[in-house]
Each structure stands twice: as structure tokens, then as C-alpha cells.
Design brief:
The complex is a heterodimer of chains A (about 500) and B (about 270). Chain A has ten helices and 24 strands. By secondary structure, chain A is an alpha/beta fold. Chain B has a five-stranded antiparallel sheet, sandwiched between helices. The chains are: A alpha/beta (about 500), B alpha+beta (about 270). The interface between A and B is large, with 53 and 50 residues.
Amino acid sequence: MARLIVLGGGVSGHTTATFAKKWLGNDHEVVVVTPNANWNWIPSNIWVGVGQMKKEDVVFPLAPVYAKAGIDYRQALAVSIHPDGKDGSDKPYVTIKYTGQGKEGESEEVEYDYIVNATGPKLNFDATPGLGDGNGQMGPHTVSVCTADHAAHAHSELMNIFEKAKSGDRQKILVGTGHGMCTCQGAAFEYIFNIEHEAKKAGVRDNIDIKWISNESFLGDFGMGGLHMKVGGYVVSSKLFAESLYSERNVPWIIGAHVNKVEEGKVHYELLDGTMGEEEFDFAMLIPPFSGVGLKAYDKAGEDITSKVFNPAGFMKVDGDYNPKPYEEWKAADWPRTYQNPDYSNMFAAGIAFAPPHIISKPMKSVNGTPINPTPPRTGMPSGIIGKAVAHSVVDLIKHGDNAKLHEASMAEMGAACVASAGKGIFDGQAAAMTVYPVVPDFEKYPGTGRDTDYTFGEIGLAGHWIKHILHHLFIYKAKLKPGWTLIPE
Amino acid sequence: MVLPLKKYPDESININAGPVRSFKDGFTQMKEDIIDTMKEHNLDSLSAVEIGYGYQLMVLKIEDNYKVFANPRVITQKESFISKEKTPYLFNREIEISRYQELSLVYDDENGDMQSFKIDNKELASNFLRTLDYLFNTTILDRLKPEYRDKVVASLAGKCEMPSFLDSTCPTNSKKDYFISVADKLLFFMFISLLLPLFGVSKETLGSWYSYDKFAFVAVWVLLVGFFIYAQYEAKKYKQCTSCQIGNQIGFVVKRGFANIVLFASAYSIIG
């Protein structure tokens, strides 16, 4: 009997674990190690953040789902990986520290035959002074929608702002990215337009100034170098599309910004052109940058091999080309295909946890030398697809031996769909539904933009909102492993 | 080499311009072609896209120098004003459009090194912003208010003089809204008819109202179909308009269609 350990129970880890267990059956063991008790459908957190959903609508307990699936669930934090084993044993193992199940604080060594690192990101609030509390958590000056708890807190703070606006006290809301190297502009994009939508519904829009701040070098970059969208039969750049949307909703913007300090009611930022600025706010939702979760790796002798297994940001190295090279030499082939660690063939990474070879957007630095560009999005659909491909590979390795062909899911050959809400409501909701192919531009195959415009298009409207709402229920249904769950695509 | 300039209605102006990644031979050729074409046509600015290259490269004539901007981005813009400007794509017809006078830019220079640049001059800023738009699949027409754009397009077709009107934003009230407005009024009176039995209205009067309901039921469907067809036409014409996309149109039709069915079914059971 082989044992697969999956670190992480988010979109990617949950997908990997559930498919692996389904395909392996009871002949082999699947263990999930995650510090969280609940699964969270993160794309709907923005609706929790404006009070259109409750926290309970976007989370569910993992334990009963894993019990039903026959997956060994350990509510614990992965601390270190020991891929060579230890003195007296060649068996690789991972050290975990429990956060629940009545074993809080207890440590344990869990041996494995295969391991998939799908921990997701650490929300690195402390990368920006004042954005964090200095202890790795969100600071007191801003809010976040990155977790369901954060989103519920954001809603409560937002309601205070609406109350003040109702009483005639003019309020200022700032939404965007809290660092020059953030990803997930999409979540901030959704949140700002949902706030705007709710402010209108509450009758306080006229008394609230809403402003966007982001590290994108142009509006509509979305961390992917922009999109070219087919709208009404025409191809439109996401820049024009986004500028129109922001203008229509009376939302001014600051772009190319690295937020370098947050204080009570004020952010300080540096722009790509080198200028420094400040922006005051009464309410700010700023997405933090992501980093690896801080997993360590040790060899058999106990020597630290973290830098061999992980990149400096803490993401696991896989089969990508990590040799530094100038932008003009970046290729689609640099991106990983199998997500297998080059040094340890029984080790994989999926979702945000794998180290990208480079960013997707054009690299930018301010004239002062500060890097200001979105880092590659690896969330949502790509995360699920990669998780499933990795599960396939591990299952084949277990069933057919070390020579089994690995399954591939390169982000440079993968399309992704994204539905970004711009306001919730069964009759007055709006969302931008977008597909992009490939996620990572392939400049050799598609000269110019690197993307196929036949498969890269978008549309904004009420139907998009309905799709997003349907997807909310569909993916939670799938994650709960209800009948027919495997038929629902990632 | 002087290359031919794209002219309206050549839709190949909408090629997707990718970032300039290499600053070697191909780049030099492209840059020289742009400058040669500018000199030939006495232009103050020109993008690679206007002569058929799908890259984010443009040249701005500043005094007597040709300044090259690869991968340009506008970081801040201030002080809006109404610019009267011409572009070869639209046969140098004068068009009024809202622009910003003060720009702060970043771009890659001819060695691929990132630089910043500031513009505080109405003419230079207009030239820069208009040319930059071509790099993002946008022409000056896309930034015009639909009513004005209609007139400009008609003028380009030789149907009228070039109009004088301005703005650069999306329509907030387009002609398709008339269909919805009339449908809403018909639906409102269908709703009113349902309340009449509460006031002891005579059978004859109720009969007349029921005839109205039957007429309105059909008329609302006709209006919704008309709305949908016209909205499709508008969506194709005003591609920068995010409020006239098919999702919204479906939403409008489904909402009114549903209300129409419910109101008529209620009228049938209560009055009919």
C-alpha cells in the first residue's frame, strides 16, 4: 500500500486528494494535511465582504467530506519535508504540527511514498510596513477579502462606512493591491465594483469617493499582460474595456503603484515613474503579496536543503526552467509541465505552491529600481487543472511504477476562464466573463501578444453574474463530492 | 522604408499589438520605418500599428527630434481639456476629444532600458495619447460618445460635414432604451388593470382593460424583440460601451418577458 500526502486543502490540494483517492481506491492511502478546518470557495469571498453572502455560504467543514471519501485528514500545519528520510530510515516523511482535532500543538512525523505540495500562499501582509501587524497577520489599518474571516470583517467595517456616509459624513474608499509584487488584482477588481454597486443600492454612493490603486502598469492588465476581448463581435483591449468601466462607475485610478507603507487612514506609494505619493482613506481593502508558506526541507543528515527544494520566495521548484534570462528570451517552454520536483521524483507541487519561472506581465521597475509588476496568477481554474493532472501522474506512478508517463498541464498550453463580479443581484447584477488562452503567452506560437484571440474573449453583463452565481453552487457541490462531482470540470 | 498608412475603414488597424521584447535588428527596422513614414507624411506622431506592425512601439516628434517609445505606459494624467486633432487613419479630419495635458509616462528606450518622461503640453499630450491608443487596439473613434461617433462616421462616408461635438465616454442613454421605456409603461398599466376589481369597476370597463392587456402582452414581446435586435446593432457600433453588452440585453429581455407573462397570466385569471 502506497501513501500519498497532500499538503493543503484548497482548490488545488482538494482536487488532487479527492481525484487521487477516487482513482486509487482503498488499495492505497491518501492523507491530507491542512491547518484549516473548512474548505473555502474563495471567489465568493468578495460577496461576503459586501454582505451579500454569509461566511457560512462560502465554507464547509472538511472532516465529514474526507471521512466520506476515505481520505485520512490531519488538521495540521506542515512544518518540514525530509525527502531523504532520516538516520536509520530511507523513508521520506513530513513533520506536521496539529492545529485541531483535539491535538493542537502536537507534532508528528508522517511518512510518505509521494507528496504533493499544494499549500497555497502565505498572505505576506508584513511585506508592506503597516499592512501587516508585524506577526504575519493583517494589520489594523486595512481589511482584506483573502479569507472568509477577513471578508466577514471587511463587511462589518464597510457597513460602518456606509452608516457614516448615510449620516452625511463624506467617506473615502481605497481598494487594490498593497504591494508592488501582488497578484490577484481580479479579487480587488471584483470587490471595488461590488462596493460601488452596494453603495448605490444603499443610496450612499453620492457621499462616497471610491478609488482604485494597483501595481498594474495599465488598467486591465489583470496580472496577465492584459487581454484582448471579443465584445459585441469586435476585438477590444482590456485597457479600453477597463477604462470604460471605471469611468462609467466614476472610479478614478492610480496605477503602476507600489504601496510601501500603510498608516491609519493613509497609504504611501511609489509609482513606476519614480514619484512618491500619499492617498488618504476611511476604508481600504488592499490585497497582500503572496509568498510560500515557509516550509523547510532537510536532508538525511539534517542539513537544511530548503534552497534546493524551494525558490527564495518559498515556492517549490518543479520542472520549469529557472535559469535567469532576459524578457526577450522568455519562452512558453520555460513553464513547468508535470510539476514534478527535479531532484525528488516522488515530490510534486500544484497551484500557487509551485515556483513560476518568471512573471507573465512585462517586467517593470520604477526609475528608482523598485520592481512594480503583478506576479503570475495561479489560482482558480489553472490551480484545479494542475491539481488533477498531478493526481493523475501520482496515481499512474503508484499503479504502473516509476516509468509511468506523467500527465502534463502547462499554463502555457492551458486556457482559463474567469468570471469577475461587478455587482451582485439576480436582476441588476453584473460580471465580466473572460476566457484567456493560453494563460502564459506563447510568443513563438502567437507572435505579438502571445495569445490566441479566437479563444481569448470576454463579455460583461447580467448573464455573467448568473454564471458566477451558478459556479458558486456548482463548485461547492463538487468540492463536497456530491453525486456526479467528477463530471463538473475544474 | 516608407510604408503605407492604414486608412479608415481598414479594420486591420485593430491588430493586437504585443510588447516589444527584443531591441535588435527587427526593432531597428521597425523604428526606422515609422520615422521614414512620419517624415514622408509630415506627421508629429505615429505608431507601429498604423503601418502594419503588431508591436507596442510609437514615435513622437518633439521639436525636430524623433523620440522612440517602446512599451509606453501612462502612469498619471491630469488637467483635461478639449483637443482638436487629426489622425491619418481618419483622413486628417479634425475631431474634438477630451484629453489630458499633463502626462507622466514610462517606456523602454531604444536599448530596452526603462525610462520615465513627462509631458506638459497640450499638443504633445494629444499626439501621444492618440497614438498610444493604437497600441491598445483602440482608435479615436472608440473613445467618442456614440452620438458624435455616428456623425463622424457619417462624415467619413461623405454624408455630412465633420461635426463639432465632444466627449469620450460610453452612452448612458441610447436609442435602444426607448424600446424598454415603452415596454415598461405598457407593463405598468397591465399591473394597474389587476387592481381594478378591488374598486368595483363595471364588467364592461374590465372587458376593455382585458383587451388592453391582450394587446399589451403582444406589444411588449414585439418591443423586446425590437430592443434585442437594435441593441445588438448598437453593441457592434459602440464597442467601448460596457453597458450595452449581450449579458445586459438578455437580462433586460428576461426580466420584462417574465413580468409580461406573470402580469398577463394574472390578468387572464382575475379579469379575463
